[in-house]
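pinned: reference chain
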Amino acid sequence: MTTTDASPRVGRRLGDLLFAGTARAAGITILIALAGVATFLIVEGIPGIVTTQSSAFAGKASFVSYTWPLVFGTVLAAVIALLIATPLAVGAALVIGFYAPRRLATPLGYMIDLLAAVPSVVYGLWGATLLAPKMQPTYAWLADHLSFIPFFAGPASATGRTILTAGVVLAIMVLPIITAICREIFAQTPALHREAALALGATRWEMIKMAVFPYARSGLVSGVMLGLGRALGETMAVAMVLSASSAVTFNLIGSQNPSTIAANIALSFGERTGVERNTLIATGLVLFVITFIVNFLARGIVARGRKGS
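pinned: its structure tokens
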């Protein structure tokens, strides 16, 4: 009797040990890979930072003056994408979870999820060949009627390949990520909370505002930050859509547009050698640090939200 009772415990204990060891090995592997990437960027990027050859900085005086416009363009394109994608993603998640009937919500969720499976080069082709020409008349109208706003100062780009077009493409690319996370977070709201709000006479929107949003706040932040990470690191779509220069400007519809770090590396890496290539790797290190800081802040916000709830 004792032997029969002990054998399942031994089996379960062995299974727990195997699972714990596998999970630990996977975590250590990820940390080693991350450390390897960071080490490579630091070792290969430092010569590009400390060099005094002006050719390594594309004619700029220093590494800072060369990298600053790229950082500005990276952050600007990502912010535009989030400003467009976040309300659309939250709205789509609410429609799928609370408003649309089941027979419509399920295929709608599948369609949004399929956007994440489209390769970035396809988004780039679509943005450069179809979206940009279609947006050009809108940019011309904005330059004619709203030029007093710095974002639409003009003159409008003749091709439509602007930082705003790149931001729209990025918004569509990050939309399924934010929507999927928001949908799952909304679905995890305790049913008793929702039913209690409705029982007290709240409308569906009031129930969402009082019961769903407070519970899902940290999850919303994490979803938006994941979308921001995707937008910061996107390469081919931005490189194909954006007609980039080294300008630093808030004019979103002009022909002078700041480039992004990832797009600049993709377009320039094949032609660079020696210390010039080291400089490009150093800009990759800057992007690595920016992404790390964004994710670190997101984790802090999520942890604070969980502690508060």
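why pinned: The chain has a mean pLDDT of 84. Residues 51-308 form a domain with the MetI-like fold fold (CATH 1.10.3720.10).
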